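User: Hey, my collaborator sent me this sequence without any context and asked if I could get a structure. I don't really work with proteins. Can you help?
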Amino acid sequence: MSYIRHINMLQCASSENNHLTLVCDGLDSMGDHKLIFVGPVGAGKTTAIATLSDHDIISTDAKATDITGQRKATTTVALDYGSLKTGSQKIKLYGAPGQIRFSFMWDVLANELAADTAAVILMLDNTRNAPQRDLAFYVKEFKTLIEDSQLIVAITHTDEKPTPTLAHYHTWLEQLGVSASVLFADARDHEQLLQLLHKALPEVVAAPNVPVTPTSHDAPQSAPAPYQESIKMKDTILNDVMKIRGVTGAILANPMGDILNSSNEDPALEEYLGYIAGMIPAFQSASSFDTARSIHLKSQQGENLTVFIEQEQILGVLSAQRASLRSVKQQVEDLLQWS
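Assistant: No problem. I've predicted the 3D structure and written it out in structure-token form, which is a compact way to encode the shape of the chain:
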């Protein structure tokens, strides 16, 4: 018995507050169905669970004090939980935090609370700059759980940005070798969300009386129009990067190594980043490795230099030894996705 399961059982025997009721709920009837919602920050996971749940959801939202706060007021730090009944059947809804720095909860959900999920519902925000990267990342992170159940991809915020299209997502999933249903969904629309539940549990949830968007089984066969994910960093990104806790410097360069903007006062470091920037295109064109998105280097003094690589620009971020490299990297990547 794992330590988490053991602690849960002790808590169930001794407390009835909301948070521990959630834990107890995870241990009850074996006939209940489970669904887990995953995806990046802001994709609508918490909203979707609140929309579907028969009761007020249990949420671990906290005030977003990092870069995420520019996009939304709160962020999930552990999990969200709700449930609904359909006939005599109960469906439990688990929401995973979107930020990588809380990924320890992904393991708890995938291996403990929602290990027997009927489906992984991956919610993706179409307004982010590189949703294809999000798709590939979360498919990889939850690979085992997807293989043991099924994958349903729900694309949100398409009213704000209609591309990529469903055809693009189908193409990307095919390239990943993954079979999945793909639907547009509004996390605030109960009927649309019931489509997701019907796809996951067709014998439990009846098809809603709303137009059904295409799935992997009736997707357009023609190739979609070319869609190129390209992130263009503005000079002002350095101001935002410097607000991240633990960051001590930021440098923007082009692939030829020319410095475009810098908050750094060390010419040697700028020259070093310029050298790295100039070497990256040559290395990638001469190698058979996948394109690198970031490189991490550490100085003899323990400082971190993380280099973020885009097609037209290179961003070098210097952070103190005591800073959480994982947190810094996550926040810079959020800036790139939302800039």
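In plain terms: The first strand starts at residue 33 and ends at 38. You can pass these tokens on to your collaborator as they are.
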